[in-house]
Recover the amino acids of this structure.
């Protein structure tokens, strides 16, 4: 028989800072959709990402793309003699594909 605890369980998040960092990135609103869009479509211009994730304001989308760039998940590519800017997943971002596939599988099983 399991022992009853007097205090509620409080996990020590300092034990796994990498896990905590991962979920702070993936759990932030719009990041999953940005990553999923770039996984499915490949490199895209800002306006194409914005059109795909229409409910996300441009201001927030810019902010999220910058954060994902700082985290090494998204790369911002500029072209010489052009105003063209393209966003694409880095190798680190591409490595999220099996995780995103697993999330889709879990969601398909447990949500209507």
């Amino acid at each position: 028989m399991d022992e009853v605890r007097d205090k509620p369980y409080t996990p020590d998040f300092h034990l796994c800072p990498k896990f905590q960092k991962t979920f702070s990135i993936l759990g932030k609103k719009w990041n999953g959709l940005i990553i999923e869009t770039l996984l499915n479509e490949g490199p895209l211009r800002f306006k194409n990402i914005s059109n795909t994730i229409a409910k996300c304001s441009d201001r927030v989308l810019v902010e999220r793309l910058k954060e994902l760039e700082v985290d090494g998940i998204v790369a911002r590519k500029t072209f010489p003699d052009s105003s063209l800017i393209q966003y694409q997943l880095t190798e680190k971002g591409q490595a999220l594909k099996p995780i995103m596939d697993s999330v889709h599988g879990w969601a398909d099983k447990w949500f209507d």
User: Anything to note?
Assistant: The chain has a mean pLDDT of 91. Strands lie at 44-45, 74-78, 85-89.
